[in-house]
Amino acid sequence: MNDQARGRLRTALNALTPPAEDLTIPDLQDSTRRPRLSEAVAIAAACLLALAAVGSMLWVRGLSSASVPATQVTPRPPAATAASPGTPGPQPPVPGLVPPSAAITPTATPRCHTSDLSASLRPLNSGAGQRYAALSLTNRSGHVCQVYGYVGMLLLDGNGTPLPTDVVRNANPGPQIVSLAPGQSAFTLLHWTVVAGPGESQTAQCEPQPVYVEITPPDETTQLVVGWNMQFVCLHGRIDVHGLAPGSGPAF
Amino acid sequence: MAVSNGSATAGVTLDELQFGNLIQPLMDRAYQVAYQVLGDREAAQDAAQEAAITAWQRRGQLRGPSLRSWFLKITLNKARAIRRRRWFTVIRSTSLAERGRDLAGDALEGVADRLDLVVTLRRMPAADRITLLLLHAMDVPHAEAAHILGLSERGIRSRERRALRRIRPYLEQVQP
């Protein structure tokens, strides 16, 4: 390698890393590690959520003792015991919107954790450089659980190295509470482009070919990994997602 | 003071100011190494800063061919630990894309071969990229790079050859 190539390699290697914003050494005298900003935000958010949950429960109890008949806020009995003689038997749970009142009753359906779910990707009709797929999360546990929100995603190459990924949440349709019985699914449409954008190579493939994708279910901190048997994702890995909706998505 | 960036003695006693003066010049390199693992600016900064705290807490165990290699090794371990907490990366995975956009706007714009070189480097496994970064951007000797990456010197040379082979077409393109 001659000097020119060496210099070019050095420049390219230095160009891999954006300039740092803050590299000051933390207060070393305080040997207890200070929480990172992200951790502090997470802790604050958890506290707020806990306060909100307690507030909601107190509010519901207040209603039950004041103006609302007790029967309206009594925790709903399990479906099997709710059916009285002469009434239709329990219906199989159907994925869909859960009434808001159910979400705040003490017997609210638990959230689907990552271990409760399996993920699958299905390519949909695509064209003109635009690509679509349906990402389904299926309840593989033995109990009913619910999902609410958007998935997180990270594209990976064959070695498990993260590739540029830019998950953009579309507000319409937005999130809704989806209750999933065992075996039922919720889905989101994925959209991306295979046309190179600004800053991407126009002469070669715009971005590396993903081999896997990590899926983070809403409000979870662990991931499911599934194969990405579709094309690469231009615009620096931009993938548009929607709020999770009941079902497995369109057929094609 | 018995320690410099170039050589280190185990069991030395450093006060906070001395330690800070030694580590501060290495923070940018630590950040660069962490970024190759994490692909995220803030996470890489966190890794470098956590490494500084860990290094301070373990200053009595300072070992290795130099303070630099010891500190970069700690940083690399921190970055890998952060990466294992993957949700963090999932949420903040746009930085590489941001960097791609930055590249388009800087002096490299229009130089297709240079961009191809950067793109190829980005596509490499992080370990290969770090190897080249240490050897060819930071001028770290092979023995020291091997210590940082936990390889033998032979292993690091083999990895370097493999990585250089991948980018050679882009390096040769620009030679007159």
Blueprint of the fold:
The complex is a heterodimer of chains A (252) and B (176).
Chain A: H1 3-15, H2 37-65, H3 70-73, H4 79-82, H5 100-104, E1 117-123, E2 130-139, E3 145-147, E4 152-156, E5 166-169, E6 178-180, E7 185-193, E8 212-216, E9 224-227, H6 234-237, E10 238-241, E11 245-246
Parallel strand pairs in A: 5-10
Antiparallel strand pairs in A: 1-2, 2-7, 3-6, 4-8, 7-10, 7-11, 8-9
Chain B: H1 16-23, H2 27-38, H3 41-57, H4 67-84, H5 87-91, H6 95-105, H7 112-123, H8 126-137, H9 142-149, H10 153-173
Descriptive terms for the model:
heterodimer, A: 252 residues, alpha+beta, six-stranded mixed sheet, three-stranded antiparallel sheet, 11 strands, 22% strand, globular, B: 176 residues, mainly alpha, 10 helices, 0% strand, disordered N terminus
Describe this structure in words.
The complex is a heterodimer of chains A (252) and B (176). Helices cover 23% and strands 22% of the residues of chain A. In chain A, the strands form three sheets. In chain A, strands 1, 2, 5, 7, 10 and 11 form a six-stranded mixed beta sheet that branches. Chain A has a three-stranded antiparallel beta sheet with strand order 4-8-9, with no helix packed on it. Chain A has a two-stranded antiparallel ribbon with strand order 3-6. Mean pLDDT of chain A is 75; it is low at 31-35 and 63-106. Chain A is of the alpha+beta class and 252 residues long. Chain B has helices spanning 16-23, 27-38, 41-57, 67-84, 87-91, 95-105, 112-123, 126-137, 142-149, 153-173. Chain B is an all-alpha fold. In chain B, helix 2 (27-38) packs parallel to helix 4 (67-84). Chain B is built from ten helices and no strands. At the A-B interface, helix 1, strand 4 and helix 6 of A face helix 1, helix 2, helix 3, helix 5 and helix 6 of B.
